[in-house]
Amino acid sequence: MRIDDSNASHYLTITTTSDLTSNRTLTLVPGDGNRTLTLNGNAVLSQDYQTSASPQFAGLNLGHASDTTFTRVSAGVAAIEGNNILTANNIGVLVQAYDVDLATWAGLTPSANAQSLVTAADYAAMKALLDVESGTDFLSPAAIAAAYQPLDGDLTSIAALTTTAYGRALLELANTAALTALPNAFVGDSGAGGTKGMVPAPGIGDSGRYLKGDGTWTAISGGGDLLAANNLSDVANAATARTNLGLAIGTHVQAYDADLATWAGITPAANVGTFLASPTSANLMAVMGSEDTGDGAGAVLVFSKSAVMENLWLDAGTASLPPLQLQSGTNTTTAVAGSVEYDGTALMFTPIGTQRGLLPAVQLFRLNANLVGASATGDQAIFGKSVTLTGSTVYAFEIVYSLSKTAGTTSHTMSFGFLGGGSGTTNNILLNVVHNSAAGNPASNVTATRLALTTTAKTVITGAITTANTTYAYQIKGTVSVNAGGTFQPVYALSAAPGGAYSTLAGSYMAIWPIGAAGADINVGTWA
Description:
528 residues, alpha+beta, 28 strands, 26% strand
């Protein structure tokens, strides 16, 4: 293709030097405007030179080629005229980071001696360079301590004091005798505190005086109280005399009391004296006219008819002391009518003949308000509580409760069981469950379902429940033999979340009481 020049005197030929393998198209896109392409040298276009492209150059010259040439050295490293360009990452690695102290040192020209000192190998070399020798040019701490008094804070404080001739004389005293002679004193005996000390020496006229605790010589009060020559005649009063003689009333001798005077007129019986000397149950019975119907620890104290005892009054209990406490023991071989016994597990009473029976000590919990559960699977405490039972003990129990909900139709079943806490385990259990259900009203007359369980594990006790508004009523009775003690908690569990939570209704309760020791039949009464 030929293009004429500006005056049509010559033309420009555009051709290709490539050996094309097929027809090719060179497209010039000037856009909607005038464009000018100026070529002042050879140009090789082999990559994208748009502003959005990333063209690569082996080198880049600015101005004349020998002025400034940018070249690539390696990844992330560029050079100008063969010298690498430093980046921020090189500061502190290839070059020293700027520091104002280094700038100060840069302004100083160290002498040859200073340079030698800095490059010395060790302290010995430094001392040699400085011509400083221990013991000649300076003293070691040991040499200072040997030749001079070391610095001490107490010595500094003493140095600030202005002494007197008397004070210096005290420091120069040779012994204790010289010390006591100077203030006209002597060292007395040890006092109540066990320490000797200096006291003023007696003077003229002190021979008849005594040394008081305050360190003064004082005349004896009354001219010599309690002296044999005075025969107590000069004691100030009788109370002082009794005190001096160790006969103070109320301290050394019994003070007068009208009750004591009354007792003095009574001659106690021999049994009373025996009891006061040894207050045992046997001596008490001897005093009160009673008899012992047994021997040893199993003895029973029975008051005779002469010991009138129409009513028995017990003091009120306290936080640490009950009004009546029975000690555990062995029940009588043959029950006695009217007797109360405690074998360490259960309390018993015999109302007729030998018909001993249990007096239940019931632990009971009753809900006063509805207890809302959760619309979920998993164990839910019926009462929100658990009871702690004792090991090796058999308990009887009764549980009455109702579960009610007003929403949720997702099909689910309901299980009942017990959870144990800690190391608690059971030997065996038997419980009878009676339950019924009614839509909405728990008082509805619905046929009850009955079943017996022999496990504490949760057991499904209902069929599928799909009614939103429903109430289940339960009555459970049974006994459980506890192996290791621990908590005992009745729970229910739902097989699926119904969409509405059950509530344990107010008035639901559980009662449980011990009936005997585990490991054998429980036999209380006239069973044969």
